[in-house]
């Protein structure tokens, strides 16, 4: 089961998103504000991280780097205010997709499902590549 983390400063919005992902069958903790995110990253690995960058543009890119450093295999979805972030730059930081405010829960969940499908495929490819590499080593040893 995919593990999802919601990082959102507004408790009502955070709880709403957590509930929406839980209804879809995802393993989701209660979410957190930015201040508690580092502690969760240190304790757990997540498959999908949905986070609201708000209007903190100066801190936002640093937050992205922290997320990717601690959960490098996680897919990221950023919730942003229009005209606050460069979506191209965010993509370069590893963000799967950006959702503009105001948003609908079902849109966040839909994009989250697509991001998780991408992650599953990437994991399968990585596993197959490892098997192929092991087979090459075994075949080399027989020659």
Question: What this model shows, in words?
Answer:
The chain has 143 residues and is α/β, with parallel strands linked by helices. The chain has a single domain (3-118), classed as Response regulator (Rossmann fold, 3-Layer(aba) Sandwich). 57% of the residues lie in helices and 18% in strands. The protein contains 5 helices and 5 strands; from the N terminus they run βαβαβαβαβα. It has helices spanning 11-23, 34-43, 57-70, 87-92, 105-142; strands spanning 3-7, 27-28, 48-54, 75-80, 95-100. Strands 2-1-3-4-5 form a 5-stranded parallel β-sheet, with helices on both faces. Helix 1 packs across helix 5. It is elongated and about 65 Å long. The model has no long low-confidence stretch (mean pLDDT 87).
Topology:
Elements: E1 3-7, H1 11-23, E2 27-28, H2 34-43, E3 48-54, H3 57-70, E4 75-80, H4 87-92, E5 95-100, H5 105-142
Number of E-type strands? 5
CATH class: Alpha Beta
Provide a count of the helices: 5
Q: Rounded to an integer, what's the Rg over CA atoms?
A: 17 Å
| Shape by Cα distribution | elongated
Please identify which CATH superfamily we are dealing with: Response regulator
Strand order of the largest sheet: 2-1-3-4-5
Largest sheet: 5 strands, parallel
* Level-2 CATH architecture: 3-Layer(aba) Sandwich
Assign a percent range to the helix content. Answer: 55-70%
Number of domains: 1
Structure, briefly:
Strand 1, helix 1 and strand 2 form a beta-alpha-beta unit. By secondary structure, the protein is an alpha/beta fold. The longest helix has 38 residues.
């Amino acid at each position: 089961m995919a593990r999802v983390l919601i990082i959102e400063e507004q408790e009502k919005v955070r709880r709403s998103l957590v509930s929406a992902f839980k209804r879809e069958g995802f393993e989701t903790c209660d979410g957190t504000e930015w201040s508690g995110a580092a502690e969760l990253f240190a304790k757990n690995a997540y498959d999908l991280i949905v986070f609201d960058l708000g209007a903190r543009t100066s801190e936002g890119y640093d937050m992205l780097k922290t997320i990717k450093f601690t959960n490098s295999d996680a897919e990221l979805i950023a919730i942003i205010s229009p005209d606050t972030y460069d979506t191209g730059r965010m993509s370069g930081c590893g963000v799967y997709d950006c959702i503009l405010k105001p948003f609908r829960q079902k849109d966040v969940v839909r994009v989250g499902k697509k991001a998780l499908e991408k992650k599953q495929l990437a994991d399968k490819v990585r596993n197959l590549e490892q098997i192929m590499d092991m087979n090459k080593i075994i075949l080399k040893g027989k020659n």
